[in-house]
Amino acid sequence: MVEAPVVTDRRSPQVVARENGLTISGATKTFATPEGTEVHALDHVDLQIRDGEFFVMLGPSGCGKTTLLRSIAGLETLDSGEIYLGRDRIDDRPAFSRPVNTVFQSYALFPHLTVAENIAFGLQMDRLPKAEIADRVAQMLTLVRLDGLGGRRPAQLSGGQQQRVALARALAKAPRVLLLDEPLAALDLKLRRGMQDELRRLQRTTGVTFVFVTHDQEEAISLGDRIAVFSQGRPAQVGTPEDLYERPVSRFVADFIGETTFLTVPVRPDGDGQVVQIADGPPVRLAAPAQVAADGTTTVGVRPERLVLDGSAPLIATGTLQQLVYMGTDLRIQVALADGTTLAVRVPPPFEGLALTPGPTLTAGPDPAHLHPLALEAA
Predict the structure, then answer these.
(1) Which CA distances in Å does 201 have to 53, 138, 143, 222?
(2) What pLDDT band is residue 155 in, cutting at 50, 70 and 90?
(3) What residues contact residue 333 under an 8 Å CB cut-off, 6+ apart?
(4) What is the pTM of this model?
């Protein structure tokens, strides 16, 4: 008997993850306002979320990120567009039949049920055998590190413990995608950072695709494998945290992710590249091509931690030290340039031996690779 040949999937893991993930195509959603106008919450959104990744949707209030999350969950209906999970279209299914689950900021725990009963609730609605439910609840309690607390009521738990119960309940049904709508916003800073570590651990342990909505840039950078920065109903840029921080494509993204000084400066050709001049400084060659406005200027962004004051990087300008603030982890310095522009500079430790006081003239410079030309803003 001849054995059938073994068929192997020659596709790369990246391709498989993309094809098995969430695909949003042409998603639009418009809401009417009391004043009779319309708000375009989603404006023809195209987005690919890979299977098994921690994907963050980041942006200010009203940018569309929560509307898209609710549309994936089935809590909003798109005006047009499609949502696929793998090869299966899900936007035309009712919420209860989609293989996704949602964790809300309010936790939404049943106060009259115990921790174990809260976790078991969805499994009971699915009419699973009692023994299977008990095993699943025990697994979830171990997963979220709440062993021994199954008999408590939510009111007897801390905020972080309540959040873990909400996560356990959502993960108990083994969803393919877990949607998280600003779930850490109600926690204090120290607890929130601890829960960020917990979320990363849970996502890595379960392999479930996490789609996380937040307006907190630090939270997004610490959690996301990739981040979509939303603006006016659509992603302005999608990439890894490093991509967004080090290579923002627009002023909006550079301003929303981290701190940036924006400089509008003259630009001119120089051989096969371009040079700019900042205030009274010498010409500086750009490491990447810049878009040039009609008046012959371009906008470049530079991060405060990329500027140095000790002459170890090429000079871009001289200025006067206006303000110095000790932050513990760094010194925050404001330098006024000759043309009135203010540069923000962060100086890391050690601080001993630094003779920095307001008044003296300083030279400031980054590696030109850290001067980021930004796309022209739409008129």
Answers:
(1) 12, 18, 10, 12
(2) very high
(3) 309, 321, 323, 324, 325, 344, 345, 346, 347, 356
(4) 0.86
